[in-house]
Amino acid sequence: MRSGIYRIRNIVNDKCYIGSAAYFASRKGVHFHNLRHNKHCNNHLQRAFNKYGEDSFVFEILCVCLPEDLISLEQHYIDTYIPEYNICRIAGNTLGVVCSEETRKKISIAHTGKKLSQEHKEKVVTALRNIVRTKNHYKHAFKPIYKLCPESLEILEEFESIMDASVKLNVDHSSIAKAAKGKLYKVGGYAWSHKENYDVQTIRFNIENTFSYKPIEQYNKDMVLLKTYKNLTEASQELEVSIQAVHNCVYGKSKSCCGFILKYKNNNNGHFKI
Predict the structure, then answer these.
(1) Helices 43-52, 24-36: inter-axial angle, 10-degree rounding
(2) Can you tell me the distance from the alpha carbon of 1 to that of 3, in angstroms, rounded to the nearest whole number?
(3) Mean pLDDT of the chain
(4) Is 247 in contact with 232 (CB distance < 8 Å)?
(5) What is the reported pLDDT for 50?
(6) Please, how many CA atoms are within 13 Å of residue 91, restricted to the half-sphere of its CB?
(7) Distance (Å, whole) CA 248 – CA 237
(8) What is the distance of C-alpha 267 from the center of its chain?
(9) In this predicted structure, what is the pLDDT of residue 268?
(10) Which residues of 119-147 are buried (b: 16+ CB within 10 A; e: fewer)?
């Protein structure tokens, strides 16, 4: 399925834009083409793109759904994330047709203070739980999952599925899925594991080898160790560069970052599976 809800996220400050698309690929293409040519209709997003650069923005799929569910689900995610780059906070999907700046502002003003009815909220929850997914790619989303204490990995709460946890905690379901697979350390302030895979030793090992958790070492051009950062985020903040720039350096996509060589600690080539 190619339709659903997406966000364009600034990995430097975590601000984002939420939208819906009938076709993800074409919608992404239109956004970034207009941003690169400085003609995007959303001035907030365009100014941020010009300031931080293309490498600081990622296109992320939040939810795959049927076209008829786009509006209600888009509203759910707008209410959940409160996206800083959205000019209009009311979902009004037009399947790829972009409203003018003036139209967006009028819609926003007209709906200011408007609250969703309980019936509308229940419809959103129902739609989220009945999203049609391809069997092999999304079957993990319906398995029981544990919310864990990130330090002790003690079980704090059990949910029927990733989607159930996502709706109740207002956390991106795809991020929970990545955490349950050992690709992220914490999501929503917690560690995660599928019930059938719960094993403290294995989870601890996976956490210590996620790219966001692993310490990063800073070297000069003579390979003299200068400093060790606690994680990727700390390195990004202290070097005053994007997370993507640090990520590219430790993975060998760029030779240096701010004149330094960066590598994951205790890993000579800077590569490990995520």
Answers:
(1) 70
(2) 6
(3) 79
(4) yes
(5) 93
(6) 25
(7) 15
(8) 27
(9) 43
(10) eeeebbbebbeebebeeeebeebeeebbb
> SS3 of 17, please?
strand
**Domain CATH for 79:** 3.40.1440.10
Q: Which residue has the higher pLDDT, 157 or 181?
A: 157
Rounded CA gap, 118 and 14, in Å? 30
Do both 114 and 152 map to the same domain? Answer: no
CATH number assigned to the domain comprising residue 203: 1.10.10.10
Q: What order do you get walking across the sheet with 145-148 strand by strand?
A: 155-159, 145-148, 191-194
Listed residue (168, 171, 162) closest to 144, CA to CA: 162
**Residue ranges with strand state E in the chain:** 4-10, 16-21, 57-64, 145-148, 155-159, 191-194, 216-219, 225-229, 261-264
Residue at 123 is within a domain: no
Angstrom distance (rounded) from CA 181 to CA 203: 9
Distance from C-alpha of 78 to C-alpha of 17, rounded to nearest angstrom? 9
pLDDT at 271: 38
